[in-house]
Structure formats: C-alpha cells, structure tokens
Amino acid sequence: MRHCIYPGTFDPITYGHLDVLARAAKLFDRVTVAIAENAGKEPLFTAAQRVEMVRPNVAKFPHVSVTTFNGLLVEFCATQQADAIIRGLRALSDFEFEFNMALMNRHLEPRIETLFVMPNEQFSYTSSTLVKQVAKYGGNVAHFVPPNVAAALTKAFAA
Predict the structure, then answer these.
(1) What is the rounded distance in angstroms from the CA atom of residue 80 to the CA atom of residue 65?
(2) Contact at 8 Å (CB) between 9 and 113?
(3) Is 128 a catalytic residue?
(4) Can 41 be counted among the known catalytic residues?
(5) Into which CATH architecture does domain 3-124 fall?
(6) Catalytic pick from 30, 50, 90, 132?
(7) Catalytic-labelled residue, pool 17, 23, 50, 132
(8) How many CB atoms lie within 10 A of CB 28?
(9) Structural domain boundaries of the chain?
(10) What is the pLDDT, as a whole number, of residue 49?
C-alpha cells in the first residue's frame, strides 16, 4: 500500500490545496494531510482549528486522513511509514524553496521521495497569505476557499 504525506501549514486550506490533494489521492492508496503545528510562521488559526477546517473538506476521500505534526517532516514520514511527500508547485517562484527543501529531506531520509504536483491553473495565484489579506479587508474569498473556511476567516477578522 503506497502512502504519502501532504504537509503544510494550511492556514487556511484553499481550493488550490484541495486540488493538489485530489491529485495525490489518485496516485496513492493512502494520503495523510499533515498540518504543521509550528512551521516557523505565526498562523491565524490554531492547529486544532486548521484540522477542523480541513476534515469536512477531505471527507469525500475515503483514504485520506488529517493529523498534525511537529518537528522534522521526514521523521514524521518515517513514523507514519510513508513512501513519499507531496508538494504543490503553483509557479516558478515556488520551485527554488521546494527544491531545496526536497534535497534536504532526501539528505535526511533518502528512502522518502518528494513529488511535485501542479494544481489546476486557476489556482496558480492563490495562496493562504493572499486569501487572508483579502479576507482581512472584507473582500470576498468564496472563489478561493470552501464555505466553512470563508466563515472562519470572516469570524477571525470580525474581532
């Protein structure tokens, strides 16, 4: 059984993330969405809130699970007995960071492969950071995130 990890901060999850997940779900028998608890970023939502936003949006995939992790991704992958890491590439600007990360992960754990997946072109400019900016200033994010996520963003910025 082939198992991959789809890691990220997912703060919040977007339709672009879900598109990459759908592609990974076609390629692997089992996919674990791994939400980074401490990714060196200051997330808007707690890890538990991000899990709760992701779960209903992956329910249609029977072989996808959602969890959190802390520490080195490759160590988490090894404990999960994963074969690969899936990463989405939106644009050329993502490539250098992702390439360096993949090489470091290979150095740390050569057994785990990193696969890059391109989302549908309609999601190539969508990022969690941009979505949060739009939501912060009252813009409509319905085209970028699922309804439960849009509601959570509205609530977070209403305070």
Answers:
(1) 12
(2) no
(3) yes
(4) yes
(5) 3-Layer(aba) Sandwich (3.40)
(6) 90
(7) 17
(8) 22
(9) 3-124
(10) 97
Structure-block tokens of residue 75: 């160590």
Q: How far apart are CA 131 and CA 142, in angstroms?
A: 10
The answer, as to whether pTM is greater than 0.90, is yes
H helix runs in 28-91, sequence order: 47-58, 73-79
Give the Cα separation of 154 and 148 in Å (integer): 10
pLDDT given at position 91:
73
Alpha-carbon distance 35 to 57, whole Å? 14
| From 23, 30, 128, 132, active-site residue | 128
The one-digit pLDDT tens for each residue of the chain (159 residues) are 899 999 999 999 999 999 999 999 999 999 999 999 976 778 999 999 999 999 999 999 999 999 999 999 999 999 999 999 999 988 777 788 889 999 999 999 999 999 999 888 888 888 999 999 999 999 999 999 999 999 999 999 986
Q: Contact at 8 Å (CB) between 65 and 32?
A: yes
Catalytic residue among 2, 41, 63, 143: 41
Is 109 in contact with 139 (CB distance < 8 Å)? no
